[in-house]
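Example 615.
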Amino acid sequence: MAPAVIRKQLVSSSMLPPQMIWFLMDCVPPKRFQKPYYSLLAANSTDLKSSRVSSSIDQNIGVVGIKSSADRADISSSSMPKGRHHSEDGSNYSKNGTGNMPSSDKSSVSPAALTIKGRPDAIDESSSSSMSRGNPRSLTNNLNKMALDAGSGLSKNGNARVIRSNTEYKPENWMLPGQAEDTLNQLNLAIVGHVDSGKSTLSGRLLHLLGRISQKEMHKNEKEAKLQGKGSFAYAWALDESTEERERGITMTVAVAYFDSKKYHVVVLDSPGHKDFVPNMISGAAQADAAVLVIDASVGSFEVGMDSAKGQTREHAQLIRSFGVDQIIVAVNKMDAVDYSKERFDLIKQRLGTFLRSCGFRDSSIILVPLSAMENQNLVAAPSDVRLLSWYHGPYLLDAIDSLQPPMRDFSKPVLMPICDVLKLSSLGQVSACGKLEAGALRSGSKVLVMPSGNVGIVRSLERDSQACSFARAGDNVAVSLQGIDGSLVTAGGVLCHPDFPVAVAKHLELKVLVLDVTTPILIGSQLEFHVHHAKEAARVVRMLSLLDPKTGKVTKKAPRCLTAKQTAVVEVALQGPVCVEEFSSCRALGRVFLRALGRTIAVGIVTRIIEEQD
Ligand code: GTP
Ligand code: MG
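Predicted structure in complex with guanosine-5'-triphosphate:
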């Protein structure tokens, strides 16, 4: 049997404030929500005189469906194989093993807990305390710790590429749906929700019930959890694999696992709920086609999750929607703790419904399912407990998953896969790039251009859920084993693309940004972390071209001296090393950026122009 958890993803990403939702949804908010962030996208681009240097993707061509994952915001992140991360903060926080601990008790987990070790491109956040005092030198020093893992000669590749329109691309028959031997679609399902709501327990239970966790493994988890006085976490431990997660009783990184329903190959992305790990949760959200929002129905716990300041129920729902996910299942968990009360469920349904609608979810895309992961009620079969059976006649969770609409995919575009993880089998000299195909298709023998190195590799084999598969298409979350390429040239944050349709590689960009609630102004020379899809790079603001009116998008001031909170502006940034990037107008997945400093997101934006280097 394949391992239940295929990999754990660790990302360094940005927490977006809830108000960014409309900006990232690319839609016009209702009047009452119209705030400056929306007009960032709506701004009149003629004011910017963008002289596009390179663009290869005609977004109108070859799109199957109306909205694809490639049209979503990509998070800024980088991940690594599991087991290469650990805490540095010495915090001895742990859950009490009995569950339902108030979230306030968890506040001792510091952001520094996620210090990346053992990677040259690590961001050492453990020194961020000095940064938070606003010392620019500390910030510079800190960012300088971001060593560069991009190979040499990269920008040359990017700038010298032959730019071809997607109109020239003709997909082969096998790339399109309908030709497949395997009829099940892959569904990337993010499991999100407030800390301790039972996400991992629910995921573990599902995997166990669906035969993805052996009886032997389950017994082992039960025995070990009991020994540590954390018996109630036995199912969660199927996902929370690391010693640190188990000791602390919290999920820290997204666990990737698979199960099959009647209609889908489901990719479970079990996300952390603790607020300090929202950046990691975002990595799941970025890949999600749909989400299960887990609610703790216990009295008091649902209310804490909905708290506007502290509640991750609110934040996760908003984030998920902002990444373009519009189908959500609300798993109202721990119904056993409220005696399967219909009144409690109705109250949650009413309050949450109002909130989810305000996030932009349509009523028809919200399914609420009362259940108990602990008591196995309403997960993969109708409930057996009469207290629930007496009043609930809707779908059980697995049924609800099968009722989701298949996501729209860009099958007909040239292949594009941002690399989220790289797995190396050094003994055999094998290298695999992991990630979700945003567009196109691959099969063994396909040639891929590995960017930013610019080398061509050949797909040796493909793996989904630890099983070899003959092809992978847009939306599939796969490991792509490559041959004919030096493993060191395949890097997380890179992109696999079609050799004739290379993505751009650049380190000088014009961005349109919205500054978030910063206390320190952004100046020319300010040092930042630049994040795009799974790549991150140290960056410096080199020019401030204009301030834009937040409502109209018109230029209100040329060459401003500084940017302060809530301002919208056009700036140029120089990255320390090149990244794979596209203008937002051509490719949303590679065109959305996040700027961070002091361990916080200070601005979000889009790439408006790739600026050619003057050699
Ligand atoms: P984070 O990933 O850290 O946000 O937590 P989580 O949402 O994954 O919660 P987890 O699965 O770790 O469970 C937290 C606690 O809730 C554990 O003690 C579980 O036993 C308990 N729990 C989970 N599901 C249920 C349920 O259906 N009923 C009851 N009573 N407790 C549950
Ligand atoms: Mg968890």
